[in-house]
Every structure is written in C-alpha cells, then in structure tokens.
Amino acid sequence: MKINGNDPIHEVERAAPIAPTPALATRPDRVTVERNPNVQAVASAASSASGARAVRFRQLETAIKAGTYRPDPSQVADQILDAAAIDAKLSTLFTGQA
Q: What is the C-alpha separation between 89 and 53, in angstroms, rounded?
C-alpha cells in the first residue's frame, strides 16, 4: 500500500449518537429451559445425589467424633496411587514429555 502525501488530519467528523430503540432498551435479557424435558430429570438426580451425599457426610462426621471411624489403609493407599497416576498422565499429556 502506498500513501501519497502526509497532510495532518485537521478535523474529525463525529457521528451522531444512536438513540436506543425503546422496545429493546426496556426488554430484559433472559434464558429459559422450561421446554427441555430433561431439566426435571437432571434437577431430580442432582437433589437426590446431594441428599445421599449429605446423609453420608453426617454419618462420617458422627463416626469421626465418636472415634469409631476406621478407614481401610489399603483403600486409602490405592486412592492416593490412582490420583498420582492420573496426575502423571495429565502432566505428560500437557507437557508432551514422557
């Protein structure tokens, strides 16, 4: 691209402001999922899962406070090793190193 001349800009023409359309300015944005038949099923599954989880949490809390909670050491070790293996695989995947 070749530019001819180097005259400075003396005046910038300003555009007139655009007035908002009344119908668009007053109508709020919204999203709805009421028509999706899966919404109720997902909500039901989430509430039942969270309820079961809360019950299990209370059971564990009671056992810990009573001193009767005895975790299985081999199960804890297996979970630690599984988590470490996943971390190593993800690290290899993201860094590209073996």
A: 29
